Amino acid sequence: MKSLFPKYSKRQEGCFTIMEQKLLKQVNNLILDNSRCTGCGICADSCPEEAISVGPVGAFRRGAIEYGSAVQVDEEKCSYCGVCTVMCPFNAMKLEIDGEPSLPIVEKEGFPVYDKLAEIDQEKCVQCTKCENVCPREAIVREVPVFEGTDRCGLKKAEALRSENEFVYNEDKCTFCGLCGEICAAIDVTRKPISAETGEVTGEVKWNPKLCDGCLLCAEICPSEAIEVKKGKISKRKKNKGKVHIDKEECCTCRWCAISCPTQAITVEKLFEGEIEFHAEKCPGGCSTCVEVCPANAIYVPTPKSPADMHGEIEPNIAVNKEFCILCGACVNACPGEDIIVLKRTGLRMKGKEDSALFKSVKEKLLTSRTSKVRESKDEFGEVEVKAL
Amino acid sequence: MSEYIIKNGFVFDPLLGIKGEKKDIGVKDGKIVDASEVKKGKVIDASGKTVMAGGVDIHTHCVGPKVNIGRLMRPEDKLFRSRVKEGNTRVQMGFAVPSTFATGYEYARMGYVYANEAAMPPLDSPHIHEEIRDTPIIDISAMPVLGNNWFQLEYLKNKEFDNNAAYTAWLLNATKGFGIKCVNPGGSEAWGWGMNCTTIHDPVPYFDITPAEIIKGQMQTNEELGLPHSLHIHPNNIGNPGNYETTLDTLKLAEGVKTNNKFGRDQVLHNTHLQFHSYDGTGWGDFCSASQQVMDYVNKQKNISFDLGCVTFDETTTMTADGPFEYHLQMLNHLKWANSDVELETSSGIVPYVYDPKIKVCDIQWAIGLELALLAKDHMRCHLTTDHPNAGPFFRYPRIIKWLMSKKSRDSLLHSFKWADKVIDATILESLDRELNLYEIAQMTRAGTAKCLGISDMYGSLREGTNANIAIYNINPEDMPSDPELIEKAFAETAYTIKDGVIVVENGKVVATTPNYTVWTHVRVPDNPIVDHDIREKFAKYYTVGLENYMVFDEHVHNPRAIEVDTTA
Ligand code: SF4
Ligand SMILES: [Zn+2]
Questions:
Q1: Is A318 in the pocket of ligand 1 (CB under 6 A)?
Q2: Is the CB of residue A335 below 6 angstroms from any atom belonging to ligand 1?
Q3: What is the per-residue pLDDT for A65?
Q4: Between A and B, how many CB-CB pairs are < 8 A?
């Protein structure tokens, strides 16, 4: 008779697939976040129980199928050890014990973790917008106030600058007409209560140097030529409160931000060392699955040249920019061709105890060179099988 | 079959050197025979009339896809401009681009029995053959266009001349084509990308071969195969002021090239509608004739021939495999424009055009066409065409003959122009006193064209034993009419046209039809596995049709009459 415990189940909650092992007193959950999973298969290579397999990566990542996920975990084979959680470069696996995130294998047995280096030097960072734009993983956290350039209700542009303008106004000439205050946020015209006793309108003109950008429009618009603005030095850029930083959990170390940063303020080191080769002559074209699954946006379909510049050469069907490739392997898993993409990892950046037999075997599997294959064996239908080289 | 004897006509047969001698011609069983062999035949009295062989048109656009697009896009070409049905003919529709039936009858009325369709997109060859079937009386051949064909661009680029020859042979057989036509070499392919090649040295995009290399390579292929006709070229830079330099550059490519054929042809290059390629000036303001410069060269070179492409002052339709030119034309005149790019092969365009005598440019174009003919020293190499319907419809040939034979008619038209002074300044026509004679007209319309096409053993002559194709005109060489209009009338409506021994036109009226033939060139070449492979590969990869369906089915070819060429012997 089958025993009641452990009891296994699997369920889907939104984008999460939740594997569950219920023991008498403890509940273990392995949670796969399908919105983060890229189908790279590093979890499958790392799993000591061979409980994880890679499925229809291209179809799933393109949103062509609604069921399933890029990887599948057999909840009964799984030992809820958390190696996959440690090794996933995309923060897509979570191990929870009794509802709490937990990684006993790292804590108790000293399994190593990625030595992820992804930092922004706040001294050099000018809080521009490029890194946020190029990051393929939404790992850039830009906590910087907004200005009127992007949001009408944001800070005034003058607040971005340090200026030493001077505002001089001739009280004798001023008629308190109020025009300058109407057009400029830096000027406030307040009038005293009027009285028939004097029959005059008087008041005060206040100028806020922080909001003045030296545009000189107040002087121009003043009907009685009572205003003069002396333009002082404007220092380049005033750093506002807030900062731009990298969410290390989400960062996949592609280096898009580091390469694009205009002030070289970003340091990122890749998680893996190695090589990737694209044999474009074998790519049939018209597929671009690899382009769509690449989590680092490192693959592209080369733009055709003007025919006058072709000189008998047709652009390759596919290409990779090695600067950005993180050697994750999602492209190899997804490619329907044969021998087009060859991935060779030669090293991993880890910290912690690397000499356990378990880690060594994980490392060996991850360092196995691979490429895709057309005819896979029939027995593992529904699973991706790559060709080990 | 009936027998005839054509008595007492003035016979002009330049191929036999007969210059207007009074001579009887016998017709028996559809063939020409010595008059003495006709015993009981009907007598056709040709006294006071001119007898010539049936006319042979070397360059016309009378059948095929772009002709049909021309018919479709211009229904107004039919309204009020079609002929009334006569006798038991079919309905005849259309003016500048007549229906197939109108085309056949109209040619026959002028005494023509043969037309060479100048541009057949190979992929569309079935369309050509279907229209040939429906064109009555006249025999037709069609030249596949090759100057922008991918196979050929690649073979010639790589200097694989044998492969190019094998491919060309295959294509002629597959399309039941006649010879190699080359339109705007490289430029029509460039037009696939919206570009053009306007000199003979502009490289074709991607293919990186120049028009000069294409033309030289095609001439070499043509002579290597020994085809009946030569390379038939429409050079780059058509219709632009100053283009005569490109024309001369093109013609010079023939220098030193020797002909190799068993069909009696002497030229290696035929420049079609030379009028459109003989322009001087830098723009339409100082546009003027370059006929002198061009003819100085052509007269010296014995191995080139040309046809005129004369402007007729009609509202017509232009249609050519020169896609960029037609686009250009449409940008000038803002009329309708049709364009068709044919995969791997060619392009084409169609635009209506009005040659108005009130416009200086049209008048100069008209003068240039006539100048070329009047400056020519050898009319066996100078042929009468209008590039039908580009410079005007073919049924205006009689009008051009009138202008060529009568200075009086030319001058009165020239002086009637709105901008007569400017036109006279820009041309030399007024200074040319020459009037062509009937012998030269016969050279330009049958003997010369048949010889250049390499079919002079079958057409263009009254030699005994050939098919009886005869035109009898109401014109007396000993008493030429003083009114030039009578010349035009005589050539427009024959007294008799006889096709294969059957009287098809009598007193300008179509009275009967005979079966017409499709003339094509059957070329045997040694097996060429490389070319076989390339053909299969290109069809698998790039063509939208299958190889088996591409080749014209035998039963699709109407009354084929094959000219045999064997290079394997
Ligand atoms: S390399 Fe593979 S995945 Fe990428 S486009 Fe080519 S066939 Fe598709
Ligand atoms: Zn033409």
A1: yes
A2: yes
A3: 86
A4: 19
